[in-house]
Amino acid sequence: MWAIPGTMALLWSQYYTEIFLEPRPGADVAETVVHCLMAINLVAVGMFIYLSRANDFLFLLACVMVAIELPATFIIWDLASLSLSGFYF
Fold first, then answer.
1. Res 88: pLDDT
2. pLDDT digit string, tens, across residues 54-65
3. What is the pTM of this model?
4. Which of 6, 8, 24, 67 is least surrounded, with the fewest CB atoms within 10 Å of its CB?
């Protein structure tokens, strides 16, 4: 579950821009990949919850894991999208 957010953070660390409104070369492709990885992550989380519902204990663990992983992924996605495009907060 943490491989997708880790890949997003890796792309963010390699292609972030240091100058406001001046993206680095290749940052547009990295930004598109980050958006695609976010969509894949949402599907993976849904599948993870769906497949773990057969066992009550595994379902509880899956819910706890998703409750931690999903906000962290949204933070990585939001900050990476801003930084890769050259917009900072």
1. 66
2. 999 999 999 999
3. 0.80
4. 67
Tokens of 38: 């976010």
- Single-letter amino acid, residue 31: E
3-state helix, strand, coil in the chain (%, to 5): 80, 0, 20
Q: Are 8 and 38 in contact (CB under 8 A)?
A: yes
DSSP string spanning 33-70? HHHHHHHHHHHHHHHHHHHHTTSHHHHHHHHHHHHHHH
**Spatial CA neighbour of 78 closest among 2, 21, 5:** 5
SS3 19: strand
